[in-house]
Amino acid sequence: DGGITQSPKYLFRKEGQNVTLSCEQNLNHDAMYWYRQDPGQGLRLIYYSQIVNDFQKGDIAEGYSVSREKKESFPLTVTSAQKNPTAFYLCASSRGSGTYNEQFFGPGTRLTVL
Amino acid sequence: AQKITQTQPGMFVQEKEAVTLDCTYDTSDQSYGLFWYKQPSSGEMIFLIYQGSYDEQNATEGRYSLNFQKARKSANLVISASQLGDSAMYFCAMREGPSNDYKLSFGAGTTVTVRA
């Protein structure tokens, strides 16, 4: 089945630690995205990548880093510089540019900083 | 400035009735796409319906229809014959053209609760 997988589903980390969230897609999509969602709120864009080996900052990139070495993978690292990392993180992908291309979402990772 | 505005934080609807979720948007692009997503309590985002800025007819997908009023920059979602499984958060989103790198902007969402 084609889709997007994110792991782990729940993640706990201690303050001051870096943590990497996984996102893999087998939809052969060119573009991938990372969003953050806080309780009761909408999605905010962290980083996005339209092609391999290229990525751009979104609206709230500070304290996060990404890589895009393979088309199917777009891992997100939450660094210790992120002041309030506890949130729900969603990864998405789409075929590419074009205003008509919908984004497909993974199941999300809930990150809690202890 | 907010690109997508959803003014209804929460709504209650009786089972089998219709409900309209409001969405207004702000863009200077001529070519853009409007999307509605459903997010149940599990957290997954489910694509519901799409409307292109050049589409002359309102989009429909099963029990979902989009009331697109371009001049008023509104794209309201209508859910007909509500079911208990429709209880979820609903997000309106807009994808603009190359000047905005085709990024998707989301509204704050509307929580819908369907009552039996």
Task: Kindly list the characteristics that best describe this protein.
heterodimer, A: about 110 residues, mainly beta, seven-stranded mixed β-sheet, four-stranded antiparallel β-sheet, about 50% strand, B: about 120 residues, six-stranded mixed β-sheet, 12 strands
Tell me about this structure.
The complex is a heterodimer of chains A (114) and B (116). Chain A is an all-beta fold. Chain A contains no helices and eleven strands. The model of chain A has no long low-confidence stretch (mean pLDDT 92). Chain B has 116 residues and is mainly beta.
Summarize the structure.
Chain A has strands at residues 4-7, 10-13, 19-25, 31-37, 43-51, 54-57, 64-66, 76-78, 87-94, 104-105, 109-113. By secondary structure, chain A is mainly β.
Annotate the secondary structure layout.
The complex is a heterodimer of chains A (about 110) and B (about 120).
Chain A: E1 4-7, E2 10-13, E3 19-25, E4 31-37, E5 43-51, E6 54-57, E7 64-66, E8 76-78, E9 87-94, E10 104-105, E11 109-113
Parallel strand pairs in A: 2-11
Antiparallel strand pairs in A: 1-3, 3-8, 4-5, 4-9, 5-6, 7-8, 9-10, 9-11
Chain B: E1 4-5, E2 10-14, E3 19-21, E4 24-25, E5 33-39, E6 46-52, E7 60-61, E8 64-69, E9 74-79, E10 88-95, E11 104-106, E12 110-115
Parallel strand pairs in B: 2-12
Antiparallel strand pairs in B: 1-4, 3-9, 5-6, 5-10, 7-8, 8-9, 10-11, 10-12
Would you count the extended β strands of chain B for me? Answer: 12
What is the first-to-last residue Cα distance of chain A? 35 Å
Helix content of chain B: under 10%
User: Oligomeric state of the chains?
Assistant: heterodimer
* String of helices and strands of chain B: EEEEEEEEEEEE
Low-pLDDT sequence parts of chain B: none
Order of helices and strands of chain A: EEEEEEEEEEE
Largest sheet of chain A: 7 strands, mixed
SS content category of chain A: mainly beta
Mean pLDDT across residues of chain A: 92
Tell me the major beta sheet of chain B. 6 strands, mixed
Q: What's the helix count of chain A?
A: 0
Mean pLDDT metric of chain B: 94
Span between termini of chain B = 38 Å
Fraction of residues in β-strands of chain A? over 45%
**Beta-strand share of residues of chain B:** over 45%
List low-pLDDT spans of chain A.
none
Radius of gyration of chain A: 13 Å
Pair with the biggest interface? A-B, 27 and 27 residues
Output the number of helix runs of chain B.
0
